[in-house]
Amino acid sequence: MPDVTKTADAVVDAVAPPLVDVSDVKGDKARSLWGDAWSDLRRNPYFLVSSVLIFFLLLIAAFPSIFTSASPTTGDLVNHYVGKPELGDIASPGWLGYDIQGRSVYARLIYGTRASIIVGICVTAIVTVVGGITGMIAGYFGGWIDAVVSRITDIFFGIPFLLGAMVVLQSFVDRTVWVVVFALAFLGWTQMARVMRGAVITVKHADYVHAAKALGAGTSRILFRHILPNAMAPVIVVATIALGGYISAEATLSYLGLGLASPTVSWGVDISAGVQAIRTSQHILLYPSIMLSLTVLAFIMLGEAVRNALDPKLR
Description:
The protein contains 12 helices and no strands. It is mostly helical. α3 (45-62) packs across α12. The longest helix is centred in the middle third of the chain and has 37 residues, at 105-141.
């Protein structure tokens, strides 16, 4: 007796257009949607520049001691109180000056990368998984399940993101990195759920999905083999762009005194401290702000490049 599951997969693969290999008009080697996207990305200067910046940031976050031997938490008020930058001595503790506690601004800049990158990546991963699964279930099953999930999503959407995060963080005494991750993820999954729901609603009416159902494929097999791979493109784009937004949100909360706090090293904490000496020592505020802006810009550029590569209308 023939294997019904294998037969179903063969038929579905034959009629599913989005991710199957197709040959272009020039007769080149057949490529998938993801292959075409990668080919476009490799020629996109925004993707190349942002990838180099992000790789460098990840390297700093993973191995900060490679870039500086100075301590980000040890200060010397006698010799280094709001010390001016020593720009000629590159990568030394005093290269970018000292803050109001006599700590190296350069060392804090390097070690502060870890907190921002961890918050951005972890929040993005959580909201993508939670929002993606929620949106996929609502979009595929529809009916009362979709109605209940949509109403819950609307309730969370009605809460201002930063204001809601402030309220959540206020209920914690020790606001560590993981507490901030929880607060941002708790309110940030709704956008991903809506994006996934819309993509699944579009994909589930495709011919290859109907063929899989007709040939007896199970619900889980249809969802994870045929619907999810074809609905992931918009989710990846939104997640990439949102990552920079979560890093910015963490810095904003830390600046307001409701996010990360000392002794945790964070750009937002340093920006908040730099405001106290902005009249006389602008470098304390300037360099963390530049680093934060470059990081957010790098992820936004990466998201825009991925969006252009995955959207045929923008090619």
